[in-house]
Amino acid sequence: MKDLFIEWMYRTVKIPYQWVFKKKEAWPVTLQDYLRLPEDSLGFHLGCFLCQHNFDIQATLEEHDVFHVLTHTGITVLDEINMQFYLLGNGKRSPFLFLVIGTGLVFYPFKLKTFYQTYCKGKRAHRFYDLDFLQLLPQPIAHLQQTLNIKP
């Protein structure tokens, strides 16, 4: 039940968050464009992730799905909370990140050790949260993960 509440809260906050905080342009890329990239590329893996989970491209929020792909993070509420702890460790700061982390601490206090371990992984990775991922879509995902020290 708490996961349903958290998912509802995230969906409710997403639109105003996009409007207020995401002033950049949407990527001029379609799902088919992703899937035309080399099979070892970040973009191809992103396209597969979107297809696998039956997701649409979220305009101006594209990098969020890139984070899922790069960190091999699933899509459950707990996975999302863990990914935000990873990004916090990597240096990212945003209202959405703090909302998710706060939610995680309130609803999953027994996962604090896991959250801390995930935070430490993000800290060990080289700063990647603010890269221009649109330009990196053709790059091999394994090379990016190795170069950036991104460990699942």
From TrEMBL:
Residues 48-68 form the C2H2-type domain. InterPro entries: Znf_C2H2_type. The keyword Membrane applies. Keywords: Membrane, Transmembrane, Transmembrane helix. The chain crosses the membrane at residues 96-116. This is C2H2-type domain-containing protein. It comes from Flavobacterium stagni. The lineage of its organism: Bacteria, Pseudomonadati, Bacteroidota, Flavobacteriia, Flavobacteriales.
